[in-house]
Amino acid sequence: MRGLKRNRVHVGRWVAAAVVSSAVVVTPSAAQDAESMEIPMRIEDDRILVPVEIGHGVEVDFILSTGNAVTVLNQAFIDNHGADGDFWLGDVELNMDHYATVSNAELNPDGGMIVGIVGANTLNEFDLLIDPLNDRVVLQTVGRAVEWDGVELGDPTRLRVYHGIMLGLDVDLVGRSFPAMIDTGTGRVVGSPAVGDALGIPLGEQGSSTIEWASGEATDVRVHIRDLSLFDRWDPEGKGFLILGSSLAYDCALSISWLHREMRRCPGSQTFGDAAARGER
To answer: Helix, strand or coil for residue 50?
Structure first.
C-alpha cells in the first residue's frame, strides 16, 4: 500500500487520530495507528486544485480527480522537466506506475498553470474527505469504518467500484433511474443526450432538476447535456448516463471510500451546482 510518509514534513499535516479535532476516529481493534493528513485545497474554474511538490520544495497546481484512473501530466511540463522525478501530494507520493499526458491546451483551456491531475490510482488507497468549507482535503489510512470527527455526514450510499478505481452509483431524475459516476475533476453535473431527452433539455444546453440517490437528494441541480465519448464506453446502448462532479461537495463535504465502497454527504436535502454560480472559494 502506498502509505503516508512519516519522514516528510510538507504541505500535509500529520495528525494523531485520537488527539486532533479533525482527525479520524478509529477503534483500537480496527487500526491502532490510523493516521490522517490535511492538504489545502481551493476551487478555481470549477475544479478542485491541490498543491503538489515536484522537487526541491517547488509546488505546482494539480486537479484532484476521482474520474481519472491514473496520474495525468501536462505535456509541456514533461517537455521542460521530464517525468522521472517524485511527485508528492503532501506526504503521499503520487502513483507514477502508469500515467497519461495531455496537451497544455486540454489541461488549461482558458489559460493557467495547472501541471497535472491527481488520479484515482493514488487516492483509492485511502479514505478521502473533500471539505471545501474548510479549504481542505483529508486523506486517512483505511480503518474498519469511515468516520470523520467534527464532520456531520449522512448515511452511506453504496458505490460500485470498477477495477478498484472508478466510482459508480445509481441516481434518480424525474422518476427514472440512471447510472452515474463520481468525477471530482469537474465541477459540473453532465448528462448524456438520453438524460437530456428525459429532462427536456436540448443537447449543448443546461437545465435544473432534482437528483436523488440512496441516502439523500439535491435540488435545483444544474445539469449540462453533452455528447461525450466517455458516454459511449459507460453507456454503449445510449439509455442515459450522468457524471457527478465535485459540486457534490461545494455546500458541505464529500466522503469517499474505495475499500468500503461508500459515499457520504451532508444529511437531508441539499443544493449543489457550478462554483461560478455560487461564488468561487
So the answer is: strand
Q: Are strands 189-191 and 157-158 parallel, antiparallel or unpaired?
A: unpaired
Cα 164 → chain centroid? 15
- Position 268 scores a pLDDT of 63
Cα angle 140, 146, 149; round to 5: 75
DSSP bridge partners of 167: 161
Helix (H), strand (E) at residue 278: helix 275-278
Distances (CA, A) of 239 to 158, 179, 182, 213, 230: 22, 9, 18, 18, 14
pLDDT at residue 15, as a whole number: 29
What are the C-alpha distances in Å from 225 to residues 142, 184, 194, 232, 272? 36, 18, 9, 14, 17
- 186-216 b/e (C-beta count within 10 Å ≥ 16 → b): bbbbbbbbbbbebbebeeeebeebebbbebb
SS3 assignment, position 199: helix
**Residue 102: is its pLDDT beyond 90?**
yes
Q: Which residue has the cell 489510512?
A: 141
Phi, psi of 222, rounded to the nearest 5 degrees: -85, 115
Q: What 3-state class would DSSP assign to 232?
A: helix
Q: State the Cα–Cα distance between residues 102 and 278, nearest whole angstrom.
A: 30
Please choose, from the candidates 264, 66, 71, the residue with its C-alpha nearest in 3D space to the C-alpha of residue 183.
66
pTM of the entire predicted model: 0.84
Convert the pLDDT of each residue in 47-67 to its tens digit: 999 999 987 778 999 999 999
